[in-house]
Amino acid sequence: MQVLTSPSQILDLKQSRNPKILSLPDSFRKETGIDKDSSYTLQKGFTVEGKATFENKPSQVSISPKQNGKSTFSWNGKSYDLDPGKCIKGNHNIQLGEVKVIEHPLAWMLAFGLYADFSLEEASLPTFDYCDRVYMEGAKDNLKEIGKRNPISVSSPFALVWEKGYCIIEPSEDNKFMIDHQVAYPGETIGNSRIEMEFNSEVFSFFGDARTTAFRTKKDAENFYQIGLAGGLKDYPFTLENVLLLDEDKIYNPREKFVHEGYNYEFLCHEIIDIVSWLRFAEEEYEGRFVGRMTTFLFDHHKQIDIAQFVCDREGLQKNGIQVVR
Predict the structure, then answer these.
(1) Angle subtended by helix axes 103-112 and 279-286, to nearest 10
(2) What does the domain layout of the chain look like in residue ranges?
(3) Structurally, what CATH architecture does the domain formed by 2-33+152-274 represent?
(4) For residue 234, what pLDDT is reported?
(5) Which residues form a coiled coil (predicted)?
(6) SS3 of the chain: helix, strand, coil, percent, to 5
(7) Where are the alpha helices (DSSP H) in the chain?
C-alpha cells in the first residue's frame, strides 16, 4: 500500500468518485439511549448460538462483561485482546489470532461504545440470519456505563492506497463520524453505488441485521438459489436466510425492511457493517471515540487489517507526519 498525505493527491481520489450519492432514509434509525461520549460494558453475560462459519458445526458464543483492559476474543484456551498486530490474513474475514470472522461484533461494539469479552466453542463466529441483531438483543437493557471517552481523530488527512481501492481518513469538523463509501460491481443491481451517512448507534440499531452478501454471476447465482431452496450447502452454513444473494440485475431474497422508494439498501448497509470494523482496534488502542470522515472504495477485510495496523502504530504514523489526537 501507499501512504498519501498530499492534499492534491487525496483530492484526485475524491474527484474520481460517483457524483450520485445515496443517503440513508430518515426512517432507518431507532432510538437507543446511548450516550456517544460514554463507554459501556454488559451488566451480565449472555450466549448466542449458531453454526460456526468455517467449521459448519453448531457453536455457542459467550459474551461477557469486560474484565480488564481491551476487549478479548478467546478460543481453545487462548485469549486475544484487540491488538491489530495479532490479526492474520487468511480467508476473507478479519481474523484475530486463531479467532475468525470478528468483523460483525466489532461493528456492533463500535456503534455502541461497548467493551466485552467473547468466548467461542469453535474457531470462527457464526454467520447469523440477522447478523448483529443477536448481539443487540442480548445487550438490550443490559448495558452499564463504565466511563467517559474523549473524541479522537487524526491530526491531518491521509489516504492508504492499494492496487485496487483506497481509504481516506480526515479530521473531524463537527464531532461526528461520517462515512462516504463506494462499491463497484458489474450490472445494475449494485453497480457503482455510493452512500454517505453518519455512523452512530441509532442507525446501526436499524441496519445492524443486514445480511452478509453473496454477489455471483447470473449462472452461479441461480445455482446458489436452488441450493438455498433445497436447504443450503452441506459443507458451509449458507442459506437464503443468512446471506443476501444477488447477481448483475436481480436480488433473489430481498427483505422488505430495507426497501425504500424502490431501492434496496441491504447490500450497502452490510457493507457499512464490514468497513467500519477496523476502527474498533483504534478506539481501544487510543481509549476514545473516533470522529472524522472515512472515504472508502473497494475496502475489503484484508485492507482493513492493513489500516488498523498502520493507525495503531504510533511510530509509523509519526514518520508520515500523522498523529491520533484528542
Answers:
(1) 50
(2) 2-33+152-274
(3) 2-Layer Sandwich (3.30)
(4) 65
(5) none
(6) 25, 30, 40
(7) 7-15, 103-112, 133-139, 201-207, 218-229, 266-276, 279-286, 301-311, 314-319
pLDDT (tens digit per residue) in 57-89: 999 999 999 998 899 999 999 999 999 999 999
DSSP string, 46-64: EEEEEEBTTT-SEEEEEEE
* 41 neighbors 284 (Cβ within 8 angstroms): no
Specify the length of the chain in residues.
326
What's the CA gap between 318 and 320, in Å, rounded?
5
pTM over 0.70: yes
Q: What is the pLDDT of residue 233?
A: 64
DSSP string across 56-121: -SEEEEEEEE--SSS-EEEETTEEEES-GGGEE--SSS-EETTBB--HHHHHHHHHHTB-EEEEES
Which residue in this structure is represented by grid cell 475489503?
A: 300
pLDDT digits (tens, 9 = 90+) for 184-204: 999 999 999 999 999 999 999
Is 16 a residue whose pLDDT tops 80?
yes
From the list 248, 250, 269, the residue with the least C-alpha distance to 258 is: 269
Paired sense of beta strands 143-148 and 38-42, if any: antiparallel
d(CA 130, CA 303): 25
Q: Which residues are CB-contacts of 174 (< 8 A; sequence separation ≥ 6)? A: none
pLDDT tens track for 199-258: 999 999 999 999 999 899 888 888 888 887 777 666 677 788 999 999 999 999 999 999
Backbone angles phi, psi at 110, to 5 degrees: -60, -45
Looking at the DSSP assignment, which residues form a beta bridge with residue 169? Answer: 158, 294
Q: Which residue in 297, 291, 321, 293 sits closest to 13, CA to CA?
A: 297
Main-chain dihedrals φ then ψ at residue 129, nearest 5 degrees: -60, -30
Asked whether the beta carbons of 4 and 161 are under 8 A apart, the reply is: yes
Residue 293: all three cell numbers together: 470522515
